[in-house]
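Sample A.
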Amino acid sequence: MINKVQHDIQDLISERSRQDMVEQVAEATLAVSEIDEIDSRKAYLEIQSRIQKDRKYRLLINVLSRAAAILFIPLLVATAILYFGKPELKNQQNFAMQEITTPLGVRSQVTLPDGSHVWLNAESTIRFKVPFDQTSREVSLVGEAFFDVQKNPKVPFLVKSGNVGIKVLGTRFNCKAYEDEYNLEVVLAEGKVSLSTNGDESAEALIMKPGDRVVFDKISNQTTLTNGKVDKYIDWHNGKLVFDETPMPEVATQLGRWFGVEIVINDPKIENYKLTTTFENESLHQILELIKLSSPVEVTYISATINSLNKKQTKAKVIFTKKTKN
């Protein structure tokens, strides 16, 4: 490659040496004319413009970078103040909803996050936050429950069922609020509660005292208040079934929930019959036998079966009819 370049240079020198004066002047004139066609001023301005644009771009990037850094620092400080200065914000959603359900034929006892105790009757559901809020202890109920509430004047205890709210500080009471029943019942054993029935806690509430029993008609929104012995309404949480002049339809409902069976009254003539007795630790068959012996009610028991198609077990069935005279 080097030899070729050297050869080309030698050829060019030899060619220039053979030119006469006129040919050398013509070649020089052509070179000068090409140089004159280049606008050096324009080229200089163009280069200078590019340099200025580049400087402006770099300056803009530099300014924006500094602005971003200046804005980021107070934003970081504000976030830190909000997070660390107010612990309630970072703990605002630090809870879970707990739901406990007891099926037919089952009763259970629950200890709430504040140490309060709740007895759930059969076919009942209770929901609450774990842990409780710092300002209130709220529980929702469907079914029946007996509450023994830990006293805390700073954090009231609230039970909600539909539009009915029960507000207490520390007390023992029973709430019966089954969805398929027209009446909601609250019975106060100890302490004092505030009962609102329209869903508005700020409205005037009914103040209950020990021995009070309030029955709220969910259809008519009417409230009935009586006072007397309440053991028969709350003794179920001690394992007792207390019937005191209780109509047979209500007896059938309570026995059905208590033992997890289906009870049907086939004869309307016995619906007005009332039962007065107390059962404790007796089996379903013992109770049915006692009812049969002490009342005009005939009892037919149909055992549970297993469906051959879906392998599911059906509930045992009890049929109440009026005894026929021999």
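Sample B, a different protein:
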Amino acid sequence: MLVLHRRYVDLIYSIVYRVLNEPTAAEEAAQDAFMKVWQNAASFDAVRGPLVAWLARIARNTAIDHLRLRTRQSGMDESLDDAEEARSLPMPDDWHDRERVQGLQMALDALPPEQAQVIKLSYYGGLSQSDISETLGLPLGTVKTRMRIGMQKLKDAWVNS
């Protein structure tokens, strides 16, 4: 197990960090992922795929579990605010482009809350539509509809800016 840890710790950490975007939470999730690997080692089947894919899936699922727990504990709005601060839209050097990015941010802020929520959870939180459905307790079709309508409104705002 120690050899496995040494070889894959950087990969596991990078996967969980991309989901959680916070070093301390990523370290904790990486440790939990390795515990799951240890506890479920007998379930690995090389016929189903390579070891690295199995490890990556465990790491991603563990990180998503941590994100869900954090979202439940701190409340949805606080979690979104923290994620937005950590990952705001990048500002280009060119003033014209900067105005367009600011316009896009304003368009995101102007969306109805239910559409903005699913887009923010996807973009800032790194959640899939299925994860958003589970996290919010909504049918997957509802999440997809809100995402599609919200993205169309953002596209229209982007094109017209």
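Observation for Sample B: The helical segments are 2-20, 23-39, 51-74, 76-86, 95-110, 113-123, 129-136, 140-159.
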